[in-house]
Amino acid sequence: MALxxxxxxxxQFQHVRFKEGFDPDEVDDFLDEIVVEWRKTIAxxxxxxxxxxxxxxxxxxxxxxxxxxxxxxxxxxxxAASATDAGQGAVAPAAASAGIIELAQRLHDEHVAExxxxxxxxxxxAQAQAASIxxxxxxxxREEIARLEKERGSLENRITELRNFERxxxxxxxxxxxxxxxxxxxxxxxxxxxxxxxxxx
Length: 201
Fold this sequence. Notes:
- This protein is mostly helical.
- It is about 85% helix and about 0% strand.
- The protein has 5 helices and no strands.
- The longest helix is centred in the C-terminal third of the chain and has 110 residues, at about 85-190.
């Protein structure tokens, strides 16, 4: 993979649920890719410096010697480079490394801030939804309680009506029975003075 600065800038990490930040394995893998590409770049830089030094020092040498130096440049790069070139080579990759590390840190901070903002937004949405659900449940509970109270009042009225009906019915029944008993007593008293033959028995 040919890694470019644009790849570092546009790299998107997956958000991890239930904790802040990004997937550490994904970040580590990406940083490993960056390190590999840097090392390749440093090696290529050293190789080109070695070729340039060999070319400048061996311009009078035969072409075969220059070709041999070019082929051996990757392994002989530290030896072939002068002290000045080595010092500049060490400073340039270090500065580049510091810049990329700073860029990576800034991207990390931005992604963390974005994750925190998204977390806060999700929490706020969840709290609003929970408050709405609780309010709706309380409203339904009050409506159900009012309905049950009304139904209980209706049943209590019906029970009172039935008790009144029972009391009246019992009073009427008692009056009726007592009236019949009085009639029987009256009839019995009247028939007691009348001979049985007169009654027709």
